[in-house]
Amino acid sequence: MQTSRVASLLLFVQPIAVAAQCRLCAPRPAGPVASPAPVAKPIEVEIETALDFSRVAQVTGRGGRVVIDPATGARRVEGALTDLGGGTLRGQVHVTGEPMRPIRVILPQRITLASADGSSVEVTNIKTDLPADARLGAGGTLTFGFGGQLDVGAAAVGSYHGRIPISVEYQ
Questions:
Q1: What mean pLDDT do residues 8-14 have?
Q2: What is the pTM of this model?
């Protein structure tokens, strides 16, 4: 079972004061004139590795879950599932933007994965390995991992795919 990836690009633009069309016609402001606020460098988000839960099978018809740790990529299989092997991958994202700026990563609480026959499973507890005060480095980049929990129901059989929207914005 595997998920595809998608990244949402969120541009941060600070408002800029608009000058009158005719500078000669506009009244002169009293006192010093403030410069417009600089526009922040847009954030670029690149998915380097997709989240992949690999393959599991149901031992009984009770379902279970597969959990991938966002920091280590370690996989844990729980419930009435057995590990069929194969490579699992934690997701990995590379962010580029304005150096040393604090950022906020926005992940959904849950997403639904679908199979070709229309059945579905859910990925929940999607988390990153970022600290609470995440910020871009001196070079304007940051790479982080993400993982989650695949909840497999009793009737879930098939190969499941979906998208996890990831948004990043300046704080």
A1: 26
A2: 0.73
